[in-house]
Automatic annotation (TrEMBL):
The lineage of its organism: Eukaryota, Fungi, Dikarya, Basidiomycota, Agaricomycotina. CDD domains: BTB_POZ_ZBTB_KLHL-like. This is BTB domain-containing protein. Residues 27-99 form the BTB domain. InterPro entries: BTB/POZ_dom, SKP1/BTB/POZ_sf. It holds the Pfam family BTB.
Length: 217
């Protein structure tokens, strides 16, 4: 059995580095993610994530795992940078204020929130991405994570806009998506006298949803 590290041990002397922001002195569960130690509060994880509730309910979790730097809970397949971004949502610098701004940062949060079933964090990340991500990114993320509202809104806006799908956008969206968008745009514009200011109404949106049924099934 491994001996516990004395309280006076220096973080730099440990095999794994403690995170400078998310290793709390009063934390009660230590995680190892991508070579970095995080000491956080189990309460938030158990309250909001069925994945973590199940994890902590396993019998083997009662044998000291997560209680010391030498026996952390290992989260395989997770990058430290993604963990850091995710925890910045659970521990914001101020209530309701977040220091994430880019599509990449909020996608990190969305990925882990989806993986661990933090529904409220998924909703937050989706809302932020709807403002900062490109329409193509929103379509891709909407399909990947089952975000129906984001997916529908982005597809509508791609069909409404005057500019056609660019070559780069087409490569990222995929052939099938581009074909359906092109067909919907053509049908919608055929019903308008002026094509420059196209705005979808309820009938157009229903037509779009029907057109994508086969692709989304």
């Amino acid at each position: 059995m491994q001996a516990k590290v004395p309280e006076t041990v220096k973080a730099e002397d440990l095999v794994h580095k403690r995170h400078s922001r998310f290793y709390f002195a009063d934390g009660n569960t230590i995680f190892l993610v991508d070579g970095v130690l995080y000491n956080i509060h189990r309460y938030f994880l158990q309250r909001d994530s069925p994945v973590f509730r199940d994890l902590f309910s396993l019998p083997e979790r009662g044998c000291g795992e997560g209680s010391t730097d030498q026996s952390p809970v290992c989260l395989e397949g997770t990058r430290s940078i993604d963990m850091e971004r995710f925890l910045s949502i659970l521990y914001p610098p101020r209530i309701g204020h977040y220091d994430l701004q880019t599509t990449e940062e909020w996608t990190s949060v969305l990925e882990l929130a989806y993986k661990w079933q933090f529904d409220s964090v998924c909703e937050l990340a989706a809302d932020k991405l709807s403002h900062v991500a490109s329409l193509v990114d929103q379509v891709i993320l909407g399909r990947r994570y089952g975000l129906e509202k984001m997916l529908l809104d982005a597809r509508v806006r791609l069909c409404e806009r005057e500019a056609p799908i660019s070559l780069d956008e087409g490569r990222r969206l995929g052939l099938d998506e581009c074909i359906v968008i092109g067909e919907v745009r053509q049908k919608a514009r055929a019903n308008l006298f002026a094509t420059a200011a196209m705005k979808f109404d309820e009938w157009d949106i229903r037509m779009l949803q029907k057109a994508f049924q086969a692709l989304d099934s």
